[in-house]
Specification:
The protein is an alpha/beta fold. It is about 35% helix and about 20% strand. The protein has six helices and seven strands, in the order βαβαβαβαβαββα. The protein has a seven-stranded mixed sheet with strand order 3-2-1-4-5-6-7, with helices on both faces. The structure holds 5-O-phosphono-beta-D-ribofuranosylamine (GRF). 5-O-phosphono-beta-D-ribofuranosylamine binds next to helix 1 and strand 5.
């Protein structure tokens, strides 16, 4: 399975994925790490794993022009899946179309730090903590045109303890992200994408 990982910041999920590949736990090849932020610490980490990197800053470009530049860099690497790991840009329907699978979904995977559909958006840890949830979690899902919304591939829950600070809460969640994302990718590498029947309703996906 050939994957391209998109990042904008720290890249701790990307690092967990690359480490799993290196350790032989994830049977995949990372053909490119791409960032919209040339200063992203993730790029340096990716290079330390010997992975190809590319960056195109989005500032001053239309969304379409930015994605055209990205697709030009990306498509020659023939990725089977795009893996979003803290990529803080919304992908256009045009981009998603280039990754449409014959079963109807887009071969673009995202990780989100809440039990979707609760707490979508860029501040899920803050929002869940602020709300006072006793249980939160992580969702890995296929991307669609809406943000943090596509068919769910896997979820895992973690507790919020009474003496948690936002930081201890976030660290517990991130540790779970780092386990869950490589595991889900490995299950796709071995068995393909498995969706529950109802999870395809918005995309007219054929469930297995
Ligand atoms: C993670 O919490 C991920 O779930 C969210 O963005 C964050 C990225 O963190 N989409 P990192 O760059 O992988 O450390």
């Amino acid at each position: 399975m050939r994957i391209a990982i998109f990042v904008s910041g720290n890249g701790s999920n990307m690092q967990a994925i690359l480490k799993s590949i290196q350790d032989g736990a994830l049977d995949a090849e990372c053909v490119l790490v791409f960032s919209n932020n040339p200063q992203a610490p993730a790029l340096e980490i990716a290079r330390s794993f010997g992975v190809n990197t590319a960056a195109v800053a989005h500032r001053g470009m239309t969304r379409e022009a930015h994605e055209d530049a990205l697709l030009e860099l990306l498509l020659p690497h023939r990725p089977d899946f795009v893996v979003l790991a803290g990529y803080m840009r919304v992908l256009t329907p045009g981009f998603l179309e280039s990754f449409r699978d014959p079963r109807g979904y887009f071969r673009v995977i995202n990780i989100h730090p809440s039990l979707l559909p609760a707490f979508p958006g860029a501040h899920a840890y803050e929002d869940a903590f602020e709300y006072g949830v006793r249980l939160s979690g992580i969702t890995v899902h296929l991307a669609d045109e809406k943000v943090d919304y596509g068919p769910i591939l896997a979820q895992a829950a973690f507790p919020r303890y009474a003496d948690d600070t936002l930081e201890t809460f976030r660290q517990r969640g991130l540790a779970l992200e780092h386990r869950l994302y490589p595991e889900v990718l490995q299950s796709i590498a071995t068995d393909g994408v498995k969706l529950l029947p109802q999870s395809g309703s918005r995309l007219e996906v054929k469930a297995l």
